[in-house]
């Protein structure tokens, strides 16, 4: 109970099932938490007062994946929602004396302890003036020896951002039902930010040469040459081989993904021999290889004069290589999977695996043997109702048969839904049988194995302009 209280005070929300950041759940000796700063939620298995195991788990399937030794529970919110309510109420009246707070839903949510969307735009109201003066600049959290890296045109970017903030403020500042803070109260002004950044050593990233003076110098870098692959030549990688042979420093080849790395190695093998893999740039420096290959999302190469050359795929092929990361596919399409009650609206058509298409009627509480339980109410034809425990959400999915307004409403106790499922299974069986028949005919006929031209294949693959699937 003490840990629950501490998590609630840190801004975490107690739920039945953890799906999103800032949520935690407790079931006996098991505690699930989706901590801020973590990519996946964590399951804590307790044995009395000791932690027996820590494991990440998939919020979709609720199954554990990998183990970890420790983790840090960061606050779920940037503001003390519970403790700061009284300060928020006073500061709101101070900034908006003529506004009616009852007409602002965010104000009402704060008083009820709810962190609703948009609350971040009232962040300064949770702290008094003295706290804001000491904590408002993020640079106060940086170590004194921190090196700040910015682009050379940061001044222009900050100016454009500030203009957009001011424009949006002017568009919305007259709505006193939902008043907004002035930009200077909520954001750091460009001049203030640049002044703060200038207190630290700075590194400017720019293709232009700057004037060298005390504390300022230019890194001696050059744009590496284009080394186009010509598949029409007998030796399509001759330009690459010539450059590497003449280089008097190490050369690192970079492919977009592990699969492309291996394909590039195969294509270069006849010209450059076997090229060793390295995990990253640091390992390449330690290895002292004259040439190596790795995978990284690098758009362009780099030439450090007489020290190192990094060659990307884009220097070799005419088409730009861009590999978009695809999230792991789920067994059930996320478009139709119902993961939480917040995704259901009253009256929406839903499909129960055993009863067919009904309508979602809301969440109700029923007493069973003296204990209250939560159920989803599904309405069917002729006023029939089905109550589904919230723990059995996996039995329900969204209706995906077309226009929701035209979705059927099945009748409980008939075989209409069973017939529909049986017919669908028969159609699936027919399609599967046809595919097997086609594959059997293919395998029964003699084939011819064409010799693969690696350079042509790589050129073809580099022109693929679509998002790759997992097996691709």
From TrEMBL:
Molecular-function annotations in GO: ATP binding; ATP hydrolysis activity; DNA binding
Example of a GO cellular component annotation carried by this entry: excinuclease repair complex
Alphabetical list of InterPro entries matching this protein: CarD-like/TRCF_RID (IPR003711), CarD-like/TRCF_RID_sf (IPR036101), MFD_D3 (IPR048635), P-loop_NTPase (IPR027417), UvrB (IPR004807), UvrB_inter (IPR041471)
Entry keyword set: ATP-binding, Nucleotide-binding
Top-rank taxon: Bacteria
Domain spans labelled CarD-like/TRCF RNAP-interacting: 343-440
GO biological process: nucleotide-excision repair
Name of the molecule in the record: Transcription-repair coupling factor
């Amino acid at each position: 109970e003490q840990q629950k209280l501490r998590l609630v005070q840190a801004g975490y929300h107690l739920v039945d099932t953890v799906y999103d950041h800032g949520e935690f759940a407790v079931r006996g000796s098991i505690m699930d938490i989706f901590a801020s700063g973590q990519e996946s939620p964590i399951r804590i298995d307790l044995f009395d007062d000791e932690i027996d195991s820590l494991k990440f788990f998939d919020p979709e399937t609720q199954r554990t994946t990998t183990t970890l030794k420790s983790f840090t529970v960061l606050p779920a919110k940037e503001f003390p929602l519970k403790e700061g309510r009284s300060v928020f109420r006073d500061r709101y009246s101070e900034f908006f004396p003529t506004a009616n707070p009852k007409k602002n839903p965010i104000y009402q949510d704060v008083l009820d302890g709810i962190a609703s969307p948009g609350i971040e735009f009232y962040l300064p109201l949770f702290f008094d003036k003295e706290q804001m003066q000491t904590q408002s600049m993020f640079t106060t959290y940086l170590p004194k020896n921190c090196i700040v890296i910015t682009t050379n045109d940061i001044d222009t970017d900050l100016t454009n951002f500030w203009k957009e903030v001011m424009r949006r403020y002017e568009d919305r500042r007259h709505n006193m039902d939902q008043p907004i803070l002035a930009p200077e109260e909520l954001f750091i002004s460009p001049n203030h930010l640049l002044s703060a950044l200038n207190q630290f050593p700075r590194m400017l990233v720019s293709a232009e040469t700057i004037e060298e003076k005390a504390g300022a110098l230019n890194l001696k870098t050059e744009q590496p040459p284009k080394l186009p692959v010509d598949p029409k030549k007998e030796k399509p990688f001759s330009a690459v081989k010539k450059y590497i042979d003449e280089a008097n420093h190490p050369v690192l080849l970079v492919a977009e993904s592990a699969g492309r790395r291996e394909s590039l190695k195969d294509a270069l093998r006849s010209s450059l021999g076997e090229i060793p893999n390295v995990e990253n740039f640091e390992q390449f420096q330690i290895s002292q290889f004259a040439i190596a290959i790795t995978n990284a999302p690098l758009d362009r190469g780099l030439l450090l004069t007489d020290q190192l050359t990094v060659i990307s795929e884009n220097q070799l092929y005419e088409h730009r290589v861009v590999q978009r990361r695809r999230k792991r596919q789920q067994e059930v399409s996320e478009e139709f999977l119902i993961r939480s009650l917040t995704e259901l609206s009253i009256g929406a058509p839903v499909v129960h695996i055993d009863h067919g298409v009904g309508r979602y009627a809301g969440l109700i509480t029923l007493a069973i043997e003296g204990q209250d339980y939560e159920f989803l109410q599904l309405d069917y034809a002729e006023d029939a109702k089905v109550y589904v425990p919230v723990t059995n959400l996996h039995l329900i999915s969204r209706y995906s048969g077309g226009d929701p307004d035209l979705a059927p409403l099945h009748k409980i106790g008939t075989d209409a839904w069973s017939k529909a499922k049986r017919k669908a299974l028969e159609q699936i069986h027919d399609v599967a049988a046809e595919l097997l028949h086609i594959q059997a005919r293919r395998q029964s006929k003699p084939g011819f194995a064409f010799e693969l031209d690696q350079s042509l294949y790589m050129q073809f693959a580099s022109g693929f302009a679509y998002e790759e699937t997992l097996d691709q």
